[in-house]
């Protein structure tokens, strides 16, 4: 027997270039957020940056 649940997460963070708030859903990461590095482009200033999601230790 098993149970299944679908979870939608939305993380909020600031662009490292322009400090404007960003959300993971704006970058298509709301259903598939994984630990690691994600290459993103700011929706405000258009600059590329890397979002690192770390696992707790």
What's the helix-strand series?
A: EEEE
Helical proportion? under 10%
**Distance between the terminal alpha carbons, to the nearest Å?**
30 Å
Number of helical stretches of at least 4 residues: 0
Structure description:
The chain has a two-stranded antiparallel ribbon. Strands 3-4 form a two-stranded antiparallel ribbon. The protein has no helices and four strands. With 57 residues, it is mainly β. The mean pLDDT is 89. The chain has strands at residues 12-14, 21-23, 36-41, 48-53.
List the helices and strands and how they pair.
Layout: E1 12-14, E2 21-23, E3 36-41, E4 48-53
Antiparallel strand pairs: 1-2, 3-4
List keywords for this structure.
single chain; mainly beta; 0% helix
Short description:
By secondary structure, the chain is mainly beta. The chain is built from no helices and 4 strands. The protein is elongated.
